[in-house]
Amino acid sequence: MNRLNIAVIGTGRMGSVHCRNLVRSIPEANLVAVCDIRLEVAQRVAAELGIGRVVQDYRELLADPDIPAVLIATSTDTHWFIVRDAALAGKHIFCEKPLALDLASIDVALAAVEQAGVKLQVGFNRRFDPAFRRVRDLVASGAIGRPCILHIVSRDPEPPSVEYAKASGGMYLDMTIHDFDMARFQVGEVEEVYALGSVLVAPWLAEAGDVDTDVVTLRFANGALGVIDNSRQAVYGYDQRLEVFCSAGTARAENEAVDTVIVGDRTGMHAALPPRFFMQRYPDTYVNEVREFIACIREDREPPVTGRDGRLSVVMGYAAWKSYQENRPVKLSEIWRET
Amino acid sequence: MNRLNIAVIGTGRMGSVHCRNLVRSIPEANLVAVCDIRLEVAQRVAAELGIGRVVQDYRELLADPDIPAVLIATSTDTHWFIVRDAALAGKHIFCEKPLALDLASIDVALAAVEQAGVKLQVGFNRRFDPAFRRVRDLVASGAIGRPCILHIVSRDPEPPSVEYAKASGGMYLDMTIHDFDMARFQVGEVEEVYALGSVLVAPWLAEAGDVDTDVVTLRFANGALGVIDNSRQAVYGYDQRLEVFCSAGTARAENEAVDTVIVGDRTGMHAALPPRFFMQRYPDTYVNEVREFIACIREDREPPVTGRDGRLSVVMGYAAWKSYQENRPVKLSEIWRET
Amino acid sequence: MNRLNIAVIGTGRMGSVHCRNLVRSIPEANLVAVCDIRLEVAQRVAAELGIGRVVQDYRELLADPDIPAVLIATSTDTHWFIVRDAALAGKHIFCEKPLALDLASIDVALAAVEQAGVKLQVGFNRRFDPAFRRVRDLVASGAIGRPCILHIVSRDPEPPSVEYAKASGGMYLDMTIHDFDMARFQVGEVEEVYALGSVLVAPWLAEAGDVDTDVVTLRFANGALGVIDNSRQAVYGYDQRLEVFCSAGTARAENEAVDTVIVGDRTGMHAALPPRFFMQRYPDTYVNEVREFIACIREDREPPVTGRDGRLSVVMGYAAWKSYQENRPVKLSEIWRET
Amino acid sequence: MNRLNIAVIGTGRMGSVHCRNLVRSIPEANLVAVCDIRLEVAQRVAAELGIGRVVQDYRELLADPDIPAVLIATSTDTHWFIVRDAALAGKHIFCEKPLALDLASIDVALAAVEQAGVKLQVGFNRRFDPAFRRVRDLVASGAIGRPCILHIVSRDPEPPSVEYAKASGGMYLDMTIHDFDMARFQVGEVEEVYALGSVLVAPWLAEAGDVDTDVVTLRFANGALGVIDNSRQAVYGYDQRLEVFCSAGTARAENEAVDTVIVGDRTGMHAALPPRFFMQRYPDTYVNEVREFIACIREDREPPVTGRDGRLSVVMGYAAWKSYQENRPVKLSEIWRET
User: Fold this and answer.
1) CATH topology (fold) of C127-284+312-335
2) I want to staple B11 with a disulfide (CB 3.0 to 4.6 A). Which of A129, A309, B15, D39 is the partner?
């Protein structure tokens, strides 16, 4: 089988993970070039992995007819125009989330993608977690009836700095956004959200207008109800669980643990902590999502996480912020009406 | 030690459970009389348990100076005036929840109790579940920091009839009321609620204006956030769980199972179902709450579930209904401002 | 339904438990009399439970034609002759285990029972544990194939005194005996045992020639293999588990925990300890076994734990001791050949 | 850091796994050559991984002064003389288990290793499983007292063919050998074993004189007792667990599951199966063991699994076979007295 030539644009934290996966774990891909505005960052990754071509300006790669696909993992504020440019150059695009923090930029990017007719997949990797996927497939099969209540628990081990918080769009757009996408993946379209937020563990976030703890309810189009709870500080580790409670049963993905050891002594039965970092919790998802992207190119299928999915997650983030600020339920249609 | 004479008024489903507990498992009590407006119902219980005195009119018991305490387990609509009459007669009172479905009646009853200076305990039995209590004690100790997120799952195995639903005050006043009390027990005072509801499994409840599935968020006075999720139909059995996620750890009470058996075969690893009925899930709580009531009388202490607790749970039920109907968060102070 | 008159002989630790169960939880029984050689012990129980008749000499009860059944919970060394006398008097007999510590005495007792044609049930209560019973029923049904490996874990929280150890017949006859019976209950007849033993936690037991830790293998007549592991000191609590691994699946009864709480903090996820004492672990079994005994009398059925079962558990204990002393596998037929 | 040049001899099932690990996951190694007597097998692996040198005769590699270390993953019967030749050539050696199926050959190999003063590590990969290692470290720390009872459960999903069984040395030398090594890793030296075996699921193994189910007890030098149970057919998947029960606590490594999903319906709560194959269960161990081997070369340390360890596991296998055939406990010293 021919391997698909691909280039990675942006080789920082997530980009270098994708590079390693492409070289080591995705035999159907051929990573032909890497690009970073910080040239030495790209060079380091290239050296580590034996990649032949390193560039500083992504437009060089877009001009190369032997590269049909690019993976974009640059800083968030640059996503929208690199997507636009790549689409105009006729490249298939895998782009890290979010597409942008403002909807106008997203619209520019998506319009270019649509016009060019290229594939676009957004990097909501958690959809590719085997446990979440098994829950979703079971629910979608109807075997346990119709969805009634979705509950997502998503808690980070440590709060971010105020600088990070400010640049990230705040908790609903930076952290809950993953859960918004997961909610749609599990149960379907959401019509309305109501967001509670509080500053309970990281007082420095208050000055940024951000929160560190939130509870967001969801009203789904199919009548199901949902709730997401988030915290920036789960001292016991990364806590990632969900339950889809249905009319004829329930399906839960429990949190993972670093090992299966149980120690019993006079004080109790002690089990292992969860993984502490997202790369330990979700390593395979980053491989799986890119393999699926490549398969979609090859088989000319719609990627499983579309530009519309990417846009809707941002819409939900804005709806949550509005709800939090006005303390009332907010319909997604108040933020954005699909055309 | 002298045993405390007590009489049970109302010997139906819950009343007969209390009678059996008083005779078999509460040696510090002496069940001297039972009363039911359906005389033969009281007679049957008396015969089973060897209780010497059976009356049809509770006022006979209130007139007896050798009975310092009564347990009221009659139908809900009669609670308030029996409480009032018992208080006027100087009896200590254990009353099943709710005190009444309207606040005016509750106020009449509580005023009588206050004036008489008798003890009143309301039957929120789940506070006496060992697991919920251990969670609460741990949280209250501060050992795992301050409460951030409370999540209560409370699901019944089967939906009720439309007649039951109509008489019960509807889901928020009949079912969620337990969780409202539990929320206050675990984390403290609630200021505001927001209630989502849906009819997903028992369409006949729609005609009663009731719901069968709900998600209710709570804003606590201490800044913590909470969420309750309820369903009338958990086909796998009675589902009763909660988590108090705190700034320095988390404490969860998982659901129970009827046994510890795990069967592995080609299709999976299969564990036992939860208990199906509340009497299997919470048997000890009904004993524990009454023992505590008796201890409070003996030691002249305030009972652990007060009239105010009983009133607040109803206030929260009304706030939830109002929130559901108006689709907006509702402050408890909109329903009732404490005097 | 007529209640069955029954008398309890021996009202110490186990006897008083049976008395309470008979009065409170076994409505089909009528506890008409209690007996203890220490009269005041019997009187105390009678007073607590309102039992009308108290005697010091069990022969008075055997002479009473209105008492068709007795429950024997005296000290072990007296079981055999009270069983014999009760059988000669035509009483049905429930006797605590073991029937005796020597086989000759057991044979005298069983011969009397057989001659009299009365029912005899031996108090191997663990057969009535719902989890162990569900495992056994599943295995017996054939649904998971034929039994291949049985593993029983049975560990006490604290070692006994040397006096207790000496009187008890030692670990294999005092503690492992329960597991020998459980092994036969789960998988069937045992042909050969091999016993390892060690003194690792209670050095004072060495002077009694006893052990505090053992591993005993079993060779079943049907080809299955088994292993029991025992310890006198599980500091985390009473540990009672078993697995029957079969050709088409496996069934395990996991240990119980005092509650379902899980606490997560920086050091781990902490679950509750097991119950610490056998009465907390097995409370229902003592009720269930006696109800079954009464049902067998009423329906003229063979009791589910026979005299032969009682004898075989002692045979296995002796075989284990012989194996331990000679460090070789010992066939049960070396100890006792059935006639 | 300089990467260590290494060559892999034997590129079949296990050898190709090692090759992939060396290239993808062990940056401190440089896989410079592969060798297989079936040249095309080695060529295929080399092509997949971009390895420059492929040879058919391992002696070519031993002659190359730029290759300080070899990994031997050929068929078992060739291990001993390739180890010998590699030692004579001054190479450090990682060799898959077992070193040989006869002790004389092992002795030849180990003598050469000792004389040459090279490092030898034997591929008992399970010692590098994080859960088993955590249990071992905890036990070794003394934090939960002294070891009393070791229990290892080790069950394969499907029985092998009769041809495989014949060539493998039979169950005790092919399968239990892993557990013999694990037992020594967890608790220390073993003095005596007693082996039960049975043919219960794969009747074709009987003709090879082999068994498909076994229970083996262990008497440790420190007084602890142990038991291993093995089956060739766990229909629910690969079952790998152990418990080290100690005087002040217990430590268990539970079996793994393919995911954390729990599905509840009317029939039960259903969890995922264990991984089905050893490569899914133990993937990291094959990386970890080779990294440790390389570190031992670099830091001139004794490898963590020595030639003596490799020899003792075979001694224990023979002792188990002798015990099984003679139905009596067998001391390891009957098989082999260390010189």
Assistant:
1) Dihydrodipicolinate Reductase; domain 2 (3.30.360)
2) B15
